[in-house]
Specification:
By secondary structure, the protein is mostly helical. The chain has helices at about 20-45, 50-70, 85-115.
Length: about 140
Amino acid sequence: MTHQDAPHAHEGHEAGHSHGSRRGYLTGFLLSVVLTAIPFWLVMAGPLGPQTTAIIVVLLAFVQIIVHTVFFLHVNTRSEGGWTLVTLVFTAIIVIIVIAGSLWIMFHLHGNMMPTPPEALPPSLSPYPAPAPVPPGA
């Protein structure tokens, strides 16, 4: 009995559902290897400055996310009537909002939550009572 003869072998394989081909998977794999090797080499050899290297590594990481999404997850405008792409975009927007909000909160926590020593506060805001005035000659 071959795979095609097996019962329920074609369930869930409606038209428009692409599971990729060997060529597509190999292309994705080779792109992933290259997109991993370049940042590794940049960091280990250090031919560029640290800021330039960091920018290139981050950009290549985003390119690798796209490669994985297209070649391995098969997210495109054709599969499932485009809903997989819409779902991916919505998820990306939510993740960006969460990350940006978290960074904003952490950035502002430093200014809003750092304790101030009582000596640095003006007397009117000090938690300690003002010392009693010392009478002259005492």
